[in-house]
Specification:
This protein is an alpha+beta fold and 462 residues long. It has helices at residues 2-73, 76-99, 104-133, 137-259, 267-297, 310-323, 346-362, 419-430, 454-460; strands spanning 306-309, 330-336, 341-344, 369-377, 380-386, 433-439, 443-451. The protein has 2 domains: 2-206, Four Helix Bundle (Hemerythrin (Met), subunit A), CATH 1.20.120; 302-460, Heat Shock Protein 90.
């Protein structure tokens, strides 16, 4: 639950960050467009200033040419040309004032230029009047010298205004280029980062979707396995019930026949009755083992521990095993430790120890010795069964507790391979452990350790 919540926070955080980046990139793009428009307007204005200055200089030159043409050729058209040029200068000066209204230095230069132009126009008018009235030659020369100085001053002011405007234009272009590159870099990086974030969010969402699909598939598989386990349990329960009654009748009848008229009974007939009784017991145990495994797989096998007197239990178990032992093995029961009782499930414990003793009897030579040790440890009870049988090959130890698995060296010894699987299932419910030591031709020792701490947990959560 915590992991899913953390992934949800990552997705929400990623989407929020992506939206913020998109907003930031959009804002930068808007700024970029706004500044480009402002820069374009500024450059347009600068070009207009330079164009107007050029027109003023050209107009002054045109007026000078018209004045000189009128003086030299007395052509009225040249005089008209001069008058038209003088009239257009005022409009251009006004236009310049509007274009340069935000720059104080340029306004001062423009005022100086306006004064110089008025002075030049006054010189033009004086020279024209002197020529028309036949003025003194010396006065004309003085006015011409002043006119030339005025022209130089005008050109100087125009050059200053043009230089300042060109400098502003260059600076504006440089700032526009650097700002454009910087904002373009921000836009590209922001777009890439946003794409990466969206990709990461998509990956997380896809991962969650895959996990959800896997979880659904697992749930379906578990449901199917549970249904199959239920069917198997019902089937084996039915089979066990249907076979147990006739097997009990067969076993009881064989025992009655063996008990009556033993002296008059033919040895061959007695041997056949023993075979019937033995086969019925094997079938009954096989059904019990199959039913136990099926119930364990279906989760229906329960562990209900209660205080059990161990020594009596072990002695009764050994007595039961010796009743069915046709080869008369010697089973030595050894008790070690001080305590005599433990919390155990009697039925499950009986399945564990009876299967281990049955294997020890089955795989030991006729009349062999079997040691059955009961001892106590801190927080646990230990059962140990040691035989002198055929042993288990090392390569078979890995699959020892798998159902229907049998070692390679059992040869023609009858068995189903279910006993140790039943032992492991019953031990799992006890939260116990099993250890094996074996050597071919020497014997096998199984050690079962069942803790007692789990009893408190079981009682709290039965």
């Amino acid at each position: 639950m915590t992991k899913r919540s953390l992934e949800g926070k990552w997705i929400a955080g990623g989407l929020s960050l992506a939206l913020l980046l998109i907003g930031f990139v959009s804002f930068v793009s808007y700024q970029n467009a706004t500044r480009l428009i402002a820069s374009a307007n500024q450059m347009k204005q600068t070009h207009q200033v330079l164009k107007t200055l050029t027109e003023i200089v050209a107009t002054l030159t045109n007026a000078e040419a018209g004045r000189q043409g009128y003086i030299l050729f007395e052509d009225e058209e040249e005089l008209e040309r001069y008058n038209l040029a003088i009239e257009s200068i005022d409009a251009k000066i006004i236009q310049l004032k509007q274009l340069l209204d935000r720059d104080l230095d340029q306004q001062q230069r423009l005022e100086r230029l306006d004064a110089l132009i008025e002075q030049r126009l006054a010189f033009f008018q004086q020279l024209t009047d002197l020529y028309g009235n036949g003025g003194a030659r010396s006065l004309q020369n003085s006015l011409i010298a002043q006119t030339k100085q005025n022209q130089r001053d005008i050109l100087k002011i125009v050059a200053q205004i043009q230089s300042e405007e060109e400098f502003l234009l260059q600076r504006q272009v440089s700032q526009t280029q650097s700002g454009f590159h910087r904002r373009m870099l921000i836009e590209v990086l922001g777009t890439i980062i946003t794409f990466v974030i969206f990709l990461a969010v998509y990956a997380l969402l896809y991962q969650q979707m895959v996990k959800r699909q896997k979880a659904e598939i697992r749930q379906q598989i578990l449901a199917q396995e549970k249904e199959l386990s239920e069917l198997k349990l019902n089937f084996f329960s039915m089979v066990s019930h249907e076979f147990r009654t006739p097997l009990s009748l067969i076993l009881g009848s064989a025992q009655l026949l063996l008990a009556g008229n033993q002296q008059e009974r033919d040895p061959k007939e007695r041997k056949n009755l023993d075979r019937i009784q033995s086969s019925a017991k094997v079938m009954a145990k096989l059904l019990a083992d199959l039913l136990t495994l099926t119930r364990a797989e279906a989760g229906k096998l329960e562990c209900k521990p209660y205080l059990l007197e161990l020594q009596s239990f072990c002695l009764n178990l050994v007595e039961d095993m010796q009743v069915f032992d046709e080869t008369s093995h010697a089973i030595e029961v050894i008790s070690q430790g001080s305590f005599t009782h433990a919390y155990l499930d009697e039925k499950l414990l009986y399945s564990i120890l009876s299967n281990l003793l049955a294997n020890a009897i089955k795989y030991s030579p006729k009349g062999g010795k079997i040691r059955f040790v009961l001892r106590s440890e801190p927080g646990a009870v230990v059962f140990q069964i040691q035989d002198e049988g055929i042993g288990i090959p090392p390569e078979d130890l890995q699959a020892l507790y798998e159902p229907f698995h049998r070692s390679k060296n059992v040869k023609n010894i009858a068995g189903t391979g279910l006993g140790l699987a039943v032992v492991q299932k019953c031990l799992e419910l006890h939260q116990g452990e099993i250890f094996v030591e074996s050597k071919e031709g020497v014997g096998t020792t199984f050690t079962v350790r069942i803790p007692q701490e789990f009893v408190a947990t079981y009682r709290e959560n039965p």
